[in-house]
């Protein structure tokens, strides 16, 4: 549930980057930083709430879904918080009301769910909230009534700044007597996850730096700039998840309960936001850099762009130095070296073109890693031992940070799959997008198998993951051009296929290493025959697609080659997987697939936000956004209410080949159609909300409408097949619901898009609610499920049922 909310915050952070990009000057940067601080206070309140009560119990679930819709509305209103657009509702007031609603909801739940002993101190937390609320409302309303000769923007900015200061200073002045950290692993893991979210927002900014519309050519400068940008993000990821993040958790665990909350406030609630601000600035700087790599756009890379990029890195490193100093009393090592080098080389960077400046920054950050492995090696090993307990727990009990880092790139590739459908809004375009999605799925599932067998955080393993991330990012950049060639650019089909082949070769190497003493190499090579055959078919398809001015009939050959490659690959994997890949950790396996469902739901959230981004906010847009979130929440409920828990327990009860076969059927193969359904739904939501938010455009979008219903049907059918494979049971309520949704598609064909979306959501929600009530006995048997399948040791006390 908390991760579902986090995925909505991903879109909100993306909106902040877009806000600063549209208003790229000092004032716009200051506006963006203020919004980041406000979002952080909202996020941290729900982190505190999740540390005290279970958010996936009873009435908390629908309430958190409502909060998710509110956060999505905040993200949509972010571009108009300081400059209202005509033709819609008053943007600043929409932002402020949504923000106050989200923040007050957390405070209300905290106030009425904690024990009587801590309720009275907690009531004092309403004081800074009330003061900040008054200032925010004044900032939204007052500028409209000021004389014309007054700088309204400065007044509004000053009031928002005052509100932010009151909120932060007020909470700190109240001390830590108003709250206690109940679960240290949960608290630390939540903050590590938000760091990953901010890093993921940076990666998405890299990929979307040249926009989501049109077909800009892919050049060597684009690839080089993207690769260097990824090095920057990867080193920053490494710097935090190597020692700092786990050392903070270790220090928190070693503190007595009386002083633990103070350290948690300073180290996590305060110092992490500094690093988040740095990452948002880095995302903006890299976005500016990669949009300036071509000669005709080089003018965009100016002094301010360089200062933003390098300043973001300085802010991030300063926050990390302060974090290490506050938690483990450490001051020195490579972060200080990086601060000195970045500061010293800024005068050189401002004279370089965009790729050169990013390359110089990548070299500086890489030197920090090399320094830890050489000059500071002894000290580095001592620090590793100090944080070993928390790091080992994170590496062995669930999804590791390196796997989550890879998943963040998968979020971007899913966005690009939707972009491919959007740029080719025909049946052929949809089939092409699903073909690319299937290929990505095969690669992701193979590396999930590797991660299940190889539970290591060694340097070679991390470097291999970073190489996989780089190849996946390059594939994502080329996905919109996976079947055609853009003039003056590199052939997109060849880029996709060559990078995909490299991914498969890395997987084959890992397979040979992991199975060296268990399976004869000749047997492994024979098992790789269908994989090689599939790759050869994709090569021929890419060569055919890359021909300029190709005849029309060639597209049918390309489609046939892609289809044959996917069939051969999936069929070959189905036949050989049980002999080579024992599932050593059922929990890790189910975690990975639960996360990929969340990622697909998050991509649908982003698609809904992108559809209305930059448009005037009307009541119909608000209703459409709320309805879309209700539909996505219903589909979340369909999987995570009982299915995910039951499936994990069945997997744990199986052993040997029985577990492998179940993992193959229920997860590797039956989760793919669920992902396909969510991608179709994401495209349908994007097209539907695009029509709703643009009254001057076409009244209907037949393809978007059809895929909206088709996505729900495919997802629920696959979910039913998953349940049947796990429990050998057909849920007739859901089967009836699937049939009803299929009938509604033609029945509501002539209705306005918003009405059709509302009816679809209402019917789907009613079906899932009825089925959920029928599963009440199963839910009672499950009773208290084991610790969260995603968060390490995340079982807060006082669950709200």
From TrEMBL:
Record-linked InterPro entries? Low_temperature_requirement_A
* Annotated transmembrane regions: 31-51, 63-83, 89-110, 122-142, 154-173, 193-212, 218-238, 269-286, 298-318, 330-350, 356-376, 404-422, 428-447, 459-483, 495-515, 527-545, 557-581, 593-613, 619-640, 661-683, 703-724, 731-748, 754-772
The alphabetical list of record keywords is: Membrane, Transmembrane, Transmembrane helix
The record's section on Pfam families has: LtrA
Q: What is this protein called?
A: Low temperature requirement protein LtrA
Q: Please tell me the species this chain comes from.
A: Micromonospora purpureochromogenes
């Amino acid at each position: 549930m908390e991760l579902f909310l986090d995925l909505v915050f991903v879109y909100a952070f993306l909106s902040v980057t877009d806000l600063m990009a549209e208003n790229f000057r000092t004032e716009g940067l200051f506006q963006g930083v203020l919004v980041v601080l406000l979002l952080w206070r909202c996020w941290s309140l729900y982190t505190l709430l999740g540390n005290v009560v279970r958010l996936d119990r009873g009435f908390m679930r629908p309430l958190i879904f409502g909060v998710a819709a509110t956060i999505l509305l905040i993200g949509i209103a972010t571009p108009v918080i300081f400059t209202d657009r005509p033709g819609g509702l008053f943007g600043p007031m929409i932002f402020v009301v949504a923000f106050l609603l989200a923040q007050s909801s957390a405070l209300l739940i905290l106030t009425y769910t904690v024990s009587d002993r801590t309720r009275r101190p907690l009531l004092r937390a309403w004081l800074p909230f009330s003061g900040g609320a008054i200032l925010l409302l004044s900032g939204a309303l007052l500028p409209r009534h000021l004389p014309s000769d007054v700088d309204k923007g400065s007044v509004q900015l000053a009031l928002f700044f005052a509100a932010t200061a009151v909120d932060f200073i007020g909470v700190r002045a109240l001390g830590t007597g108003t709250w206690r950290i109940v679960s240290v692993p949960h608290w630390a893991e939540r903050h590590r996850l938000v760091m990953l979210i901010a890093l993921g927002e940076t990666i998405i900014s890299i990929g979307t730096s040249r926009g989501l519309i049109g077909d800009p050519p892919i050049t060597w400068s684009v690839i080089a700039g993207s690769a260097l940008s990824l090095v920057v993000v990867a080193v920053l990821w490494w710097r935090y998840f190597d020692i700092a993040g786990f050392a903070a958790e270790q220090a928190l665990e070693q503190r007595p309960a009386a002083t633990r909350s103070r350290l948690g406030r300073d180290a996590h609630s305060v110092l992490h936001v500094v690093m988040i601000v740095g990452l948002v600035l880095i995302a903006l700087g890299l976005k500016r850099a990669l949009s300036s790599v071509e000669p005709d756009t080089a003018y965009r890379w100016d002094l301010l762009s360089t200062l933003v990029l390098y300043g973001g890195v300085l802010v991030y490193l300063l926050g990390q130095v302060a974090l290490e100093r506050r938690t483990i009393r450490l001051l020195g090592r490579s972060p200080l070296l990086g601060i000195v080098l970045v500061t010293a080389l800024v005068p050189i960077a401002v004279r370089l073109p965009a790729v050169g400046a990013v390359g110089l920054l990548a070299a500086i950050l890489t030197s920090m890693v090399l320094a830890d492995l050489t000059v500071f090696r002894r000290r580095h090993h001592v620090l590793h031992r100090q944080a070993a307990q928390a790091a080992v727990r994170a590496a062995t009990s669930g999804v590791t940070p390196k796997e989550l880092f890879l998943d963040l790139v998968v979020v971007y590739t899913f966005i690009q799959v939707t972009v491919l459908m959007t740029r080719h809004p025909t049946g052929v375009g949809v089939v092409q997008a699903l073909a690319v999605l299937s290929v990505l799925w095969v690669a992701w599932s193979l590396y999930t198998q590797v991660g299940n067998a190889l539970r290591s955080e060694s340097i070679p393993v991390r470097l291999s993951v970073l190489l996989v991330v780089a190849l996946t990012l390059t594939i994502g950049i080329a996905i919109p051009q996976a079947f055609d060639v853009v003039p003056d650019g590199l052939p997109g089909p060849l880029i996709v296929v060559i990078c995909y082949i490299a991914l498969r070769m890395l997987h084959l190497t890992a397979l040979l290493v992991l199975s060296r003493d268990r399976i004869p190499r000749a047997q492994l090579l024979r098992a790789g025959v269908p994989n090689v055959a599939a790759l050869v078919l994709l090569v021929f398809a890419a060569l055919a697609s890359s021909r300029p001015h190709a005849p029309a009939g060639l597209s049918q050959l390309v489609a046939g080659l892609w289809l044959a490659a996917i069939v051969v690959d999936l069929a070959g994997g189905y036949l050989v997987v049980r002999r080579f890949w024992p599932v050593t950790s059922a929990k890790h396996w189910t975690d990975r697939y639960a996360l990929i469902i969340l990622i697909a739901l998050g991509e649908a959230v982003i698609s809904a936000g992108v559809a209305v981004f930059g448009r005037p906010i009307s009541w119909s847009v608000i209703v459409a956004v709320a309805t879309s979130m209700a539909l996505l929440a219903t589909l979340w409920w369909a999987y995570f209410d009982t299915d995910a828990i039951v499936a994990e327990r069945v997997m744990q009860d199986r052993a040997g080949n029985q577990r492998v076969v179940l993992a193959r059927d229920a997860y590797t193969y039956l989760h793919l159609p669920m992902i396909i359904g969510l991608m179709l739904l994401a495209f349908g939501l994007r097209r539907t909300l695009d029509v709703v938010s643009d009254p001057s455009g076409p009244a209907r979008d037949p393809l978007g409408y059809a895929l909206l219903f088709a996505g729900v049907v495919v997802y629920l059918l696959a979910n039913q097949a998953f349940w049947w494979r796990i429990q050998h049971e057909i849920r007739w309520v859901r089967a009836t619901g699937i049939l009803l949704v299929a009938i509604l598609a033609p029945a509501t064909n002539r209705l306005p898009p918003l009405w059709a979306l509302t009816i679809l959501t209402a019917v789907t929600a009613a079906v899932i609610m009825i089925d959920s009530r029928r599963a009440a006995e199963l839910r009672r048997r499950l009773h208290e499920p084991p610790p969260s399948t995603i968060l390490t040791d995340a079982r807060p006390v006082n669950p709200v049922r």
